[in-house]
Specification:
With 331 residues, the protein is α/β, with parallel strands linked by helices. 47% of the residues lie in helices and 16% in strands.
Amino acid sequence: MHRTLARLLGGVVALAVAIPAAQAADKIVYQLDWLPGGDKAPIYVCVQKGFCAEAGLDVTIESGRGSSEAITKIATGTSDIGSAGLGALMEARATEKVPVTAVMSLFNKGPHAFYALAGGGVATVADVKGKSVATSPFTESNVYLPLVLADVGLSEADITLTKADPGALGPMLMTGRTDVIIAWLTDVARYTGQAREAGKELVILPWAAAGLDLYSASLIASDRFLKERPDVARRFVAAYRKSLEFTKDHPAEAAEAVAAMVPELSAEDVEGSVKDALALAFNEVTEKDGLGVFEPNRLKATWERVAKAEKLDPAALDPESVVDRSFLPGM
């Protein structure tokens, strides 16, 4: 009887220990800078594949409508950590002193590009001279357009620029209503599919290849979160990095993770954008500097580009003040 009672008591104690352990996961609100999609796959992998849970984290994902909104929500404490363009954060730090810091690079290349139809006379960035160009009204690419044109000796006066709904850009290009569109490299699969259906081929001209070298999407966090819960932040960044590496090795499973949490998306549709986004995170820059790293010279060059594009005083910001490398694993 004593042995039976001891086993029962032991089970109760074990249960009592297990329940608090299960409830002890630290809650984090993760802020997307746009709607869910393949380019956001790592955070869904983190949740679905258990990397966040293994790190003792209970993560809620919030959709967004642009980097500025994401930065605002993180700055005000509505969200703890999330993704946003580093250029947008630099501008916000320079002009509004927002209490938000970048802790990891996600895209070490800008996603901006011109798309044109093969055979349409556009084979280089300089070939957009005299062409009609369509863009979305709110894309970050519009900020850098004057710079990439200037790099090849052009200005906005050399093109006919129109703004259209993002969903209309592909059809406009395929039907000849515009010669060129401005779109992100995270959408190569989507636009290639539209071109294939129309019996056409695309010419894709990344602005990075034309000299627009800069950091883009980054993992950013509120300064309060980093100060008050540094251990939670470090565990999250480590889990996110594992998720990013898993996404690289298993893009199809990463797409399934997104679709599992966002029912309106199918894994088949998402997988293409997963692979497109990976090229912006894993490339020759990654091989040289490391995954997630903010290399000082590239960071400085990013700020110089942002300052020029936004007509800001370069002395208004020390780019090093925008990043904190200490939360990256091994740093």
